[in-house]
Model the fold of this input.
Amino acid sequence: MSFPWAQQYKPATEFGQWMDDRLPIGRLVYNSLGAGYPTPRNLNYMWNFGSLAGVFLVVQIVTGIILAMHYAANADIAFDSVEHIMRDVNSGWMIRYAHANGASFFFIAIYLHIGRGLYYGSYKAPREMIWLLGVVIYLLAMATAFMGYVLPWGQMSFWGAKVITGLFEAIPLVGKPIQELLLGGFAPDNAALNRFFSLHYLLPFVIAGVIIMHIWALHIPGSSNPTGVSVKGKQDTVPFHPFYTAKDGWFVGLALIFFTAMMFFMPNALGHADNYIPANPLSTPAHIVPEWYFWPWYAILRAFTFDFLFVPAKLLGVLAMFSAILVWFFLPWLDRSPVRSGDYRPRFKKFFWFGLIPCIAILGYCGGAPAEEPFVMLSQLATAYYFAHFLIVLPLLSRIEKPEPLPNSITEAVTGKPLQQAS
Amino acid sequence: MASVDTAVEPNDSAVSEPEIGGVRRRDFINIAAVSFGGVGVVATVFPLVNQMNPSADVLALSSIEVDISAIERGQAIKTSWRKQPIFIRNLTAPEIEAANKVDVSGLRDPETLAERTQAGKENWLITLGVCTHLGCVPLGAAQGEVKGEFGGYFCPCHGSHYDTAGRTRKGPAPTNLEVPEYSFLTDTVVKIG
Done:
């Protein structure tokens, strides 16, 4: 599963040898994250966000387990129990702010990680399965984050739960029963809150499981790299430890500086003040939006204001929103260009930086803005481009684009010297 | 921790450094980084563990006031302090006499009745209703309950007997029933905690 020149695990102690013969955990770590994993020597900082997302998942799990020790998943006292955490529990305010902002940092990391994959073609053969599992992780993370946001049982929690479960109502014929099934009632109440809490606790561990598969799949071909050129020999790689453990560790430290700055000095900057008002089923907040990491998808949902071919606008919006992410599952087969890295694809690069990225930025901005002009029209244009990018631009480009010449090897790209000898 | 003596590609710029007495600069960086990280880990772990200590609302329950005017001689009441039972007992003269008659030096946890009550209020025996063996609530406070062989309290869980001063006399209980911190605000109101 690794390159033939990978360093071999040798237990340093007799006990290590004894363990290795019975339960080779040390060998597993050594071959996955240690010196036994040869990694391309030219990875840039965009390759740091996978491990960073993993660190923030751990932050979320640790702080989440602690919050669950003090939180009460009951519609009558959930809001008060969160205030109890903020005021009474020792360092409770800190742990809750770490959890609330940790979600944002997890999504920052995961978005940059996905963006890296989109630009450098990390989804292409032989790494399709890594990409597909990554999309699954992202979907699970979205579900987890949504249900977590419901738990404080403030106004945004309640109305978020109502709106998002309302999406399922758009399904023809069975929509209403499905919504009632999800909520365990006709509107969000105790039943919904309890099941959301249960699932919010469960899903992060499912995510951790899928991450293990994600990394397992990664170790078959090994990491991609900024040139997109496959590793050809020992000179193209360095051992993961100490080179990338040190780089990842340093980067985690840097990210934690920003994280703690947010947590201590502007902990509510990414939240909504309305969520400090207890849930009121009789009054919707004037401006209701999801958390920032859902804004692009929310803009796509709201872009459909018209019925089309007898399909009602409501259903169209829901279908489009889910399709916007589901299209990623087909990406490895939509982009057929054999060149992985965007660095060597002059036209792809332009469509990426001047098409896809601004389009998602506009969608993100519109998703957080009120549902009025010009944001609706902007959302519609950006939504049109978003789907065109994946369904038209990428397949076309892979036929007509003439890529720039690739370096012969990673080492040549790094040193500028021609490859001497590939083993 | 991390050893950094991994072989480096010969065609890379060599990182072999001058050694001074067998110590490399890299060793210093290693120790400094790990120490600094260790301080950070401790500073992070402390609040994550400390959150399990009693929270502010629990500590706010730490004192109660009890009106004892209705307790007749020979009666006892149970009340609750910090979610634990409290026994407040108005001892009769024979009970006080029985408690004082005991040779303290022969007890497992030697204490006189005077040491367990307040001066001038020797008839008020105020203790936690928590057996010092494993925390059950002893019998003997409510009317008609078994008071044990020594006329005080009896713990049904593992058979500890307490006398009229709440002292352990027989059975596994290691110490006397705990006397909480309390004071008489007036003759009829006690503040516990």
